[in-house]
Amino acid sequence: MLQLKEVKKSFKQPDGSELPILDIEEFNVGAGEQVVVVGPSGCGKTTLLHIIAGIGRPTSGKVKIDGWDITLMDEAECDQFRAQHIGYVFQTFNLLPGFTALENVLLGMTFARGGSLLRAAMDFLVRPALAFSKHNPEWDRARHLLERVGLGHRMNHKPPMLSVGEQQRVALARALANRPRLLLADEPTANVDTGNQQAIVDLLQETCREEKVALVLVTHAPEVARQFPRIVPLEEINRVLALR
Amino acid sequence: MSLWKIAWRSIQQRSLASTLTAVSMALGVALVVAVLVIHGVIDKSFRRSAQGYDLIIGPKGSRLDLVLNTVYHMGRPVGTIPYRYYTELADQRFAADVETAVPICMGDSFSGFRVIGTNPDMFDKLEYLDGQKYTFQPGGRNFDWNAPFEAVVGATAARKTGMRVGDTFRPVHGETGEGEEHQPFTIVGILEPTGTPIDRAFFVNIKGFYTLHTVEAAEEKPGSGAASPGSASQNEAAAAAGSPHQADDDRKISAVLVVTQKNDYQRAMAFPRRVVEELDVQAVAPAEEIDRLFRGLVGDIQVVLLILAVLIVVVAGIGIMVSIYNSMNDRRREIAIMRALGARRSTVMAVILVESILLALGGGAIGVLLGHGLTGALAPIIAERTGVVVSPLHFQTNELILIPGLIVLASAVGYLPAVIAYRTDVAQSLIASP
């Protein structure tokens, strides 16, 4: 379901020269498959996830998800595709501090619907009650996911009031909100303690299985990587690292 | 969840800055509303007060002064005209052109309110608005043609002075209240409120009004006794001076209020010119004069005040821009997260614009309430000084322009920070800040 072919990424340096980061001949992930990409810090793991998610564009190459080549999409199409088909769990959780846990989960669903000033005006003029309504399928899905990650009792708490482990579980619920086909997790256990580390890994594996989501997790922690059936060292697929 | 809620959460997150920004917008809008309401109500009140009769026939001089003095009881009388002009208009030469003529005598006051000498036709035949006849509060009536010392009081004047039917009062010569006290008049009726300057005056029988001066002149003679209402000397004086049909005498009046005959349009149009040519007077249409006043000086003042108030609103709008703009650095990561979750560039731009619109409309709504509150607070002062009743609930239709106006302003001032949000580089912002 995920295919990377001849993907290259380089950044321009202050002196004008190109700094190559990624050069991947081929990288494939099957539907529902759980893959761990391992490598030391700074080797391009996050850049790889950004390219798969369409957050960053490759310098060249193709990235296909479920047959859709996201490198051919324009930015707005790519944003929409990401919102609807890809979940993303960040290393630093990246929850919005002003929103409750429930609202953080709802955010992704809001963006998947698309949003413009015209839509905001329509929300306000045509269905003002719905604009602030708490009873619709989106809210039900968000509540269900938070209950699934064990935060049914913390839905209305804002991130600063949640523990680190709880914040990462909210981030996982948010990533799954739009029933994605692919979940990308960037060092999801890097900022949590050992006890929570295992809980997060278990939760990721279980929920991805339940929701039939393919998982690409990047980590530098061997104890995390060991728990997944397929481990891909980045230096094996990234020719830039092989040359160093 | 809607974009409105996302924007609202952003506002809540920066509650202090948002509140201050909204308050500055509220103050600007309050000023605009106060200017609109007060001007609108004064305009309406002035115009409605100038209804009920077609012409004021008065001494030559300033047309505006004649209207302000006769209709609004402001300033000093322009001068006087002979009483016989009233009879000419009412019963003689111009009777065919005139439906109703009512004499007005000014120059006295009581407790700060004008005392106006007139005849019962003032309340029997004239209307204070088109189709609105004067009515009296329960237990009251109009004064009688043959009772020279009867009086009628406007609703506000009665309330402020505590006067009731049956009470007596002594007018004072002059408008300042420092002149010599006259003979007492008995109040026989209190008018229902009309929302016009009539509410703020005492009306006495013109016969009694003239008698005062006759009696006082008699009292000045050595050996004459003091007169009281209904006393022999006063009644005699009234009998001598009272008849409006008395032949050519030296009695004076301030003006005549005239309702013209409308059955012959050309004749009605020619009537003011005829009066001016045949009598030594000026004929002024009060509605036209007030219209000219409002289009001219008052209109210009309103435009200047409105421009100032709108400038304050614009400055408040720029405050919104500065507030959101300053927050953009802190919000770069938030915006990057939204983008990473699938928000398009146009979506984050819309969130910023909606936030700006919410601040402007929220502040504007508070400003409208504040403006009307301010109007309500100023109402007693305006009523005291001008007799114009201003209600805080007087909503002007042109206040509605504030809604699209504020949305346009908010969109304009929100555009710059929205563009910054639009241009936020997601990958860089996510990597840059941990």
Short characterization:
Chain A has 244 residues and is an alpha/beta fold. Chain A is 41% helix and 23% strand.
Instruction: Provide the β-strand percentage band of chain B.
Output: 5-15%
With helices defined by DSSP (H or I, 4 residues minimum), what is the helix count of chain A?
11
What's the helical proportion of residues of chain A?
40-55%
- Helices and strands of chain B, in order, run as HHEHEHEEHEEEHEEEEHHEEHEHHHH
* Extended strand count of chain B: 14
* Ends distance of chain B: 27 Å
* Global Rg of chain A: 19 Å
Q: What order do the helices and strands come in, and which of them pair?
A:
The complex is a heterodimer of chains A (244) and B (434).
Chain A: E1 2-12, E2 18-29, E3 34-38, H1 45-53, E4 60-65, E5 68-69, H2 75-85, E6 86-89, H3 101-112, H4 117-125, H5 128-131, H6 137-148, H7 164-176, E7 182-186, H8 194-211, E8 214-219, H9 222-225, E9 230-233, H10 234-237, H11 239-243
Chain B: H1 3-13, H2 15-49, E1 55-58, H3 63-72, E2 81-82, H4 83-90, E3 98-110, E4 113-118, H5 121-124, E5 127-129, E6 132-133, E7 150-153, H6 155-161, E8 168-169, E9 172-173, E10 185-190, E11 201-205, H7 206-219, H8 232-241, E12 252-253, E13 255-260, H9 265-278, E14 282-284, H10 286-340, H11 345-386, H12 402-423, H13 426-432
Parallel strand pairs in B: 4-11, 7-10
Antiparallel strand pairs in B: 1-13, 1-14, 2-12, 3-4, 3-9, 3-13, 5-6, 7-11, 8-10
Helix pairs in contact in B: 1-11, 2-10, 2-11, 3-10, 7-8, 10-11, 10-12, 10-13, 11-12
Q: What would you note in describing this structure?
A:
Chain A is an alpha/beta fold. Chain A is built from eleven helices and nine strands. In chain A, strands 6-7-8-3-9 form a five-stranded parallel sheet, sandwiched between helices. A four-stranded antiparallel sheet of chain A has the order 2-1-4-5. The longest helix of chain A is centred in the last third of the chain and has 18 residues. The radius of gyration of chain A is 19 Å and the shape is globular. Chain A starts with a strand and ends with a helix. Chain B has 434 residues and is α+β, with helices and mostly antiparallel strands. In chain B, strands 1, 3, 4, 7, 8, 9, 10, 11, 13 and 14 form a ten-stranded mixed sheet that branches. Chain B has a two-stranded antiparallel sheet with strand order 2-12. In chain B, strands 5-6 form a two-stranded antiparallel sheet. In chain B, α3 crosses α10. The chains are: A alpha/beta (244), B alpha+beta (434). At the A-B interface, α1, α2, α3 and α4 of A face α1, α10, α11 and α13 of B.
